[in-house]
Amino acid sequence: MTYYHVWFSTKGRKPALVEDIDATVRSSFLEVSGRTGVEIVEMQTAFDHVHLLLYTRPGQALPRIMHDLKGTSARLVFERYPELRLDMGSNSFWQKSYGARRVAPDQLDIVRSYVRTQSERPLRHV
C-alpha cells in the first residue's frame, strides 16, 4: 500500500475548473477510482489545478493511474463542453506532466489538511 500526493494543472493554467466543469472532473475522478480500485483519500480542485491524496495497492503504477484519471476526465469534459477546446486554445485539457510524492503514513494527516485547504490559499497565478 502506498499513498501519493499528486498535483497537476489545466493546460496553460487556464482557469477552466469552475462550476459544472469542475463537477464533471470530480465525478470522473471518482468513477475512475471506483473502476480501478484506487482510493481518493482527499481531493481539492482550484480554478486551474488539482491536488489529490491517493491510496494505491501493490501492483498499481502511478503513471497508469494518472493516465486514467487525466485521460478519462479530459475526454468527458470535451465531450460535454466542446466549446471549451476553443476557449482553452488547445486539444488538451491537462498539462502533460504532474507532480507527485509518496506520503509516509505518519504524514497523512498533514497532507490531508494541506490538500483540503487548497481553496483557502491566496491565488498565486492571477
The whole-angstrom Rg is 14 Å
* CATH class call: Alpha Beta
Second-tier CATH architecture = 2-Layer Sandwich
In what range is the share of β-strand residues?
15-25%
Uncertain runs: none
Give the distance, in angstroms, between the N- and C-terminal Cα atoms. 37 Å
Please tell me the total number of domains: 1
CATH topology (level 3) name: Alpha-Beta Plaits
How do the helices and strands follow one another from N- to C-terminus? EHEEHHEH
CATH homologous superfamily annotation: Transposase IS200-like
Range of helix content: 40-55%
* Structural class by helix and strand composition: alpha+beta
Biggest β-sheet: count, sense, barrel?
A: 4 strands, antiparallel
- What is the molecular shape? globular
Structure report:
By secondary structure, this protein is of the alpha+beta class. It has a single domain (2-119), classed as Transposase IS200-like (Alpha-Beta Plaits, 2-Layer Sandwich). It is 40% helix and 22% strand. It has 4 helices and 4 strands. The protein has a 4-stranded antiparallel β-sheet with strand order 2-3-1-4, sandwiched between helices. α1 (19-36) crosses α2. It starts with a strand and ends in a 10-residue tail after the last helix. The model has no long low-confidence stretch (mean pLDDT 93).
Quick structural gist:
The protein is α+β, with helices and mostly antiparallel strands and 126 residues long. It has four helices and four strands.
Keywords:
single chain, 126 residues, alpha+beta, Alpha-Beta Plaits, 4-stranded antiparallel beta sheet, 4 strands, 40% helix, globular
